[in-house]
Amino acid sequence: MANQEHDLPLYEKVWLKRTFQRVMDAFMLFLLFLLLSNRLFSSNTFTFPCFLAFICESWFTFTWIVILNSKWSPAITVTHPDRLLKGVSELPRVDLFVTTADPVLEPPIITANTVLSLLALDYPTNKLACYVSDDGSSPLTFYALVEASKFAKFWVPFCKKYKIQQRAPFRYFSSVVTTKSEQSPEFKQEWSRMKDMYDNFSRKIQEVTRKQIPLQLDGELAVFSNTDRRNHPTIIKVILENKDDLSDGLPHLIYISREKKQHQTHNYKAGAMNVLTRVSGLMTNAPFMLNVDCDMVVNNPKIVLHALCILMDSKSGKEVAFVQCFQQFYDGIKDDPFGNQWVTAFEYIIRGMTGLQGPHYSGTNAFHRRNVIYGLYPDEIEIGRKGKLGEKILLMQKLGSSKEFVKSADQALDWKTNFPNDTNLSDFIEAAIQVAGCEYECGTCWGQEVGWVYGSITEDVPTGLNIHRRGWRSESCTPDPIAFTGCAPRGLLTTMIQQKRWASGLTVVFFGKHSSLVGMLFGKIQFRTGVSYFWLTNWGLRAAFLVCYVAVIAYCMIANTSIFPQGLGLWIAISLFVIYNIHTLLEHLTLGLSITYWWNSQRMCVMRTTTVWFIGFLSAMLKLSGISDTVFEITEKEHTTSDADGNNADAGRFTFDESPVFVVGTTILLVHLAGMVIKLLGLQPSDSGNGSGIGEFICSTYLIVCYFPYLKGLFGRGKYGIPLTTIYKSAILAFIFVHFCRK
Ligand SMILES: O=c1ccn([C@@H]2O[C@H](COP(=O)(O)OP(=O)(O)O[C@H]3O[C@H](CO)[C@@H](O)[C@H](O)[C@H]3O)[C@@H](O)[C@H]2O)c(=O)[nH]1
Ligand SMILES: [Mn+2]
Question: Is 357 a domain residue?
């Protein structure tokens, strides 16, 4: 811990005043309550559709309370790295983790760039160690890392000498188009040398990736011959070792592919993170660990110092378990057509959570305390861990049978950060292979109380909840420039698959023992924090209610009945709709986002909630009832430097294929189109119902407008059109729905 008794704090928390937003949020809530009470007290025709609408609207009101609560007290943190550097005699070690799992969906050149950006961090290199976990067990990834380590010997000194901000070479070379005239000839010369070297390096990798040049599986790569990614022994390779403990050399770089066995669950990313934690515990045992996905490159080379300002602050830092940096993206498509930049969510919800017990852990760009991951409680910092984690025997039961690992964990739990500098990494390989084995975790607490939590395909949220539950806080760190930037899905299908996974995983968390409700009732999750977590964990449930509402509206149109009360009730509903849109539009404009951006986000919100979140919800239900399991479908990452200037004709356009995720959306659209036709042509049964009115008409029109890309898809050709088989399937489903409505 930094010793700064009388000194200035290393970071401050600044609360933001967003009075206008609060007023608007509260007014919306008022209108929602008005709508509900109007339904309760004035309606004398309380039919079944009205009842369903009432239930859904109650849920929307609850969701609004969750959102309002999350946004109510936003805060930012301001960090002072200069004070940190003055205050501490020696900076602590930090272990850096990168996970990758598939050399096709996650091109090795991207992983190599991420690693290069980490190796070039502005931090003493003898305090850093970079561990790469490869669940794909790919010789390509390993080869790319070996080549990256050779290039790093030139790249890292170059970045540090010229104080380059972008330390992922592909980002650097795609942003600096020409060297500026005011720069020295020496720089220009070195710049072109670097550029040549990088081009060479990336060409080599591309050639083997595209199989233009076969990769010889001999020498260092021999271990990869005859390995099946689902069935192979542990592979651990030290690629770089800073043997002389130089603070201006290169950090350690270690490649790990944990053991896999055909019929053994490996818990996806959570499993990989736990192996990384144990292997690094043996080799370097840093008190702090940074983890990033393979596509998240460093954008601010001083980020470690910024994060440590929070974690090492002698006053409030002690309560902070992890520091989360926002997940921001490079090369985003203009106006975010697929709604996956999440700008408003970060600015409003996550900043809001920062004002409470802290942001949730979002899986990447986070600095964790190692001993918190091992299960430490906040009060054990002061009083020692005699009670809960005291005895060695107990530690063995919790952390597994490796004596070496338990010894290292024991030190970490006692904050003993002075790790011997005179050891060889290769001395630990044998022990590391043991802790990376399939059976190591059997009968231990890994994946439960210790480490990254298992059971959900969104491992990040329950892992964060498990930490908050013990009473820890977390903090956001958002320095300028942005800490990390990653690769957001660039196509509709990739976006949909990612969203489906999140909705499914989060629903499992909501109903599981790591839910925020359990944490509030039996743990130390503060009330408002627990409620703010619902913003995330309710995604699947939100879909269930919205789909129900959408179905009720369609039913009204088809069966000629109404859910909106006449007169005042209708006006309340219309004002809600108008004010909600103005409010969200203003929120976007305040952040400097365009009207198109706003509309894209509104429309994607409707589309993803009613389609993939709904499918995610259903798959979570199947998992929870034990019928089928969910799998982690990896998000495709594109290496976009070649068309960074946006020349890609498909960028932002909606493309479809035969994937079942498009059936739901097409069905919803067809049902509403049918409803419109039936209403406009007066084909509604006249004897039934009280007549559908303007309320239903507005809702249905809004939905069809949101679904306009699908409407275009119905008539589009090739990949821009929805395939006929999908249309047939949807038409059958829509027909069944319409048929039952008219009965
Ligand atoms: O079996 C697996 C599957 C995935 N991964 C890694 O997990 C990371 C995240 O996977 P990705 O496909 O990129 O998912 P995203 O939806 O983009 O990731 C978000 O959501 C995940 C939870 O669903 C979090 O773990 C991530 O940190 C967060 O960025 C990647 O580095 C993968 O290589 C593994 O290591 N092993
Ligand atoms: Mn990702």
Answer: no
Asked whether residue 170 is domain-assigned, the answer is yes
Amino acid at 344: T
CA separation for the pair 451, 459 (Å, rounded): 10
Residues 54 and 539: their CA atoms lie apart, in Å, by 20
What is the residue with the minimal CA distance to atom 26 of ligand 1? 363
Do 58 and 94 share a domain, yes or no?
no
397 and 456 together in one domain:
yes
Task: Give the CATH number of the domain where residue 443 resides.
Answer: 3.90.550.10
The answer to whether the complex's ipTM is over 0.95 is: yes
Pocket test for ligand 1, best of 96, 97, 99 (most atoms within 8 A of CB): 99
Cβ neighbours around 98 below 10 Å, total: 25
Q: How many domains does the chain have?
A: 2
Task: Tell me whether residue 692 is in a domain.
Answer: yes
CA distance 105 to 126: 33
- With a 6 Å cutoff on the Cβ, whether 260 touches ligand 1 is no
The finding on whether 100 has its CB within 6 A of some atom of ligand 1 is yes
User: pLDDT tens-digit profile of 89-116?
Assistant: 899 999 999 999 999 999 999 999 999 9
If asked whether residues 65 and 93 sit together in one domain, one would say no
* CA 742 / ligand 2 centre spacing (Å): 45
Q: Which of 25, 102, 134, 135 is catalytic?
A: 135
Q: How far is CA 411 from CA 183, 379, 384, 390, in A?
A: 49, 18, 12, 12
Same-domain pairing of 136 and 257: yes
Q: Residue 353 in contact with residue 461, Cβ under 8 Å?
A: no
Per-residue pLDDT tens digits for 540-556: 999 999 999 999 999 99
Asked whether residue 404 is marked as a ligand-binding residue, the answer is no
Ligand number nearest to the C-alpha of 453: 1
Q: Distance from the CA of 296 to the center of ligand 2, in angstroms? A: 8
Phi-psi region of 534 (alpha: psi -120 to 50; beta: other; left: phi over 0): alpha
Please check whether residue 676 is in contact with residue 711, taking contact to mean a CB–CB distance below 8 angstroms: no
Q: Which two tokens stand for residue 624?
A: 């929870």
Q: What is the pLDDT of residue 15?
A: 96
Helix (H, G, I), strand (E, B), or coil: what is residue 685?
Answer: coil
Residue at 420 is within a domain: yes
β-strands 75-79, 11-15 pairing: antiparallel
CA of 267 to the centre of ligand 1 (A): 12
Range of the domain at 172: 82-327+362-488
Task: Give tens-digit pLDDT for 396-415.
Answer: 889 999 999 999 998 898 87
Please choose, from the candidates 483, 491, 456, 482, the residue with its C-alpha nearest in 3D space to the C-alpha of residue 637: 491
Cα separation, 276 vs 213, whole angstroms: 32
State yes or no: is 122 an active-site residue. Answer: no
- The two three-digit tokens of residue 223, written as one number: 């271990």
Q: Please indicate, yes or no, whether residues 402 and 546 belong to a single structural domain of this protein.
A: no
Domain boundary, last residue among 488, 504, 531: 488
Q: Output the CA torsion sign for 307, 310, 312, 318.
A: negative
Q: Are residues 590 and 730 in the same domain?
A: yes
Annotated catalytic residue 135? yes
| 323 exposure class (CB count in 10 Å sphere: 0-12, 13-18, 19+) | buried
Q: Which residue has the least CA distance to atom 7 on ligand 1?
A: 269
Ligand closest in space to the Cα of 502: 1
CB 42 within 8 A of CB 569: yes
User: Is 57 within any annotated ligand binding site?
Assistant: no
The model carries a pTM of 0.95
Q: Are both 537 and 440 inside the same structural domain?
A: no
Question: How far is it, in rounded angstroms, from Cα 686 to Cα 608?
Answer: 35
Same domain for 413 and 524: no
